[in-house]
Design brief:
By secondary structure, this protein is α+β, with helices and mostly antiparallel strands. Helix content is 42%, strand content 14%. The chain is built from 13 helices and 7 strands. Strands 1, 2, 3, 4, 5, 6 and 7 form a 7-stranded mixed beta sheet that branches. The structure holds a DNA duplex (11 and 11 nucleotides).
DNA sequence: AAACCGGGGTT
DNA sequence: AACCCAGGTTT
């Protein structure tokens, strides 16, 4: 049996990258879950240090369920998209209370677990024979069969195909092999088809049209925002507010910030600089100001400089503080 | 600096 | 199906 499926598995057995979580796999759904949620936005290299810190602090679902949201967010800091951390926290609490899901349908009832993550955890940790279709698999599929659909349609066809082809004895390895191929060989740009274990069955390659698949999605316009933030200092402390539910960076700390011209509930202070923070479709032009505060000030919580690394903080909030601190160093008269 | 990537949730 | 979430990598 040397069809492309066994060629792919053999390649995976030989060439798979080592990842710290792969040693924890095959019987620990929690380890798989953590790694999959972390990997949702970013790449393996970026996730590794976070995964190791996370598993040292929260080695089991029970340990994570018992932790406070504050500490969970703090350990997630730097990974972004913090709702993933809140969902994981909530999901783990559900599992600890009611037991581990045993099917994809049950996994999908857990907050933060959708089609892909349910398939990944079920197949890798529990041996359930289900596909796990991420962007890598969609790309491999669209090239393999020259499918030019995009979006939901591409995902549906890829899921159908993947589901018909999962290796019933090694579903987790098979899913990982497909994703690994997309991540390391069948890459979005400059794929290395010369190293592809299944090149001979790739329709796009035979046609010399690999670069045309998958078809690009129509791009949306940027949303431009102009915000101003005031960094309040008092001695060796900085005054922060916690973003409320429903606001961006909800639950994280940051200096008061708002649209230019809006009432921040604090004096506007003096200009120290500006930078741009880009996220998804949004470009935020952020004007940074600083303010020396003498007495009390309603609504602010004061953190010592030395403790700031431990505070779960929004990315632009941290950049603004750093900018304001640098400005203070350049202008010692302001201290 | 712009383009692109990506999975889950909501409406 | 479109949009929100509110970060990262590649080019």
């Amino acid at each position: 049996m040397s069809d492309w499926r066994s060629d792919l598995l053999a390649w995976f057995d030989r060439d798979q990258r080592t990842m710290p979580w792969r040693k924890d796999f095959h019987s620990d759904p929690y380890a798989v879950w953590v790694s999959e949620v972390m990997l949702q936005q970013t790449t393996v290299a970026a996730v590794i240090p976070f995964y190791e810190r996370w598993m040292a602090r929260f080695p089991t679902a029970e340990a994570l369920a018992a932790a406070s949201e504050e500490e969970v967010l703090q350990h997630w800091q730097g990974l972004g998209y913090y709702s993933r951390a809140r969902n994981l926290h909530q999901g783990v609490r559900t599992v600890v209370q009611f037991g581990w899901p045993q099917t994809v349908k049950e996994w999908k009832m857990i907050s933060g677990v959708g089609d892909y993550t349910a398939g990944a955890i079920g197949s890798i940790a529990q041996g359930i024979v289900v596909p796990a279709v991420d962007g890598n698999v969609e790309r491999v599929f669209s090239r393999r069969f020259m499918v030019s659909d995009t979006g939901e349609k591409l995902k549906r066809f890829a899921t159908f195909w993947a589901g018909r082809n999962v290796d019933p004895h090694r579903p987790g390895d098979w899913n990982q092999a497909l994703m690994e191929l997309g991540a390391t060989v069948c890459t979005p740009k400059n794929p290395t088809c010369g190293r592809c274990p299944v090149a001979s069955s790739c329709e796009a390659l035979q046609a010399g049209r690999v670069g045309e698949f998958p078809a690009p999605k129509p791009r949306k316009d940027w949303i431009e925002l102009e915000h101003v933030t005031v960094v309040p200092f008092r001695g060796d402390r900085v005054g922060l507010v916690q973003a409320k539910r429903g606001e961006w960076w909800s639950g994280l700390w940051q200096p008061p910030r708002g649209e230019v011209g809006a009432d921040l509930g604090i004096e506007i202070g003096e200009f120290v600089g500006r930078f741009k923070h880009v996220v998804t479709r949004h470009k935020i032009q952020l004007e940074v100001r600083r303010l020396e505060v003498e007495g009390h000030l309603d609504g602010l919580t004061w953190f010592e400089f030395a403790d700031l690394d431990e505070v779960p903080m929004s990315a632009p909030g941290r950049r603004a503080i750093n900018l304001a601190l640098e400005a203070s160093l350049r202008l010692p008269g302001l201290e």
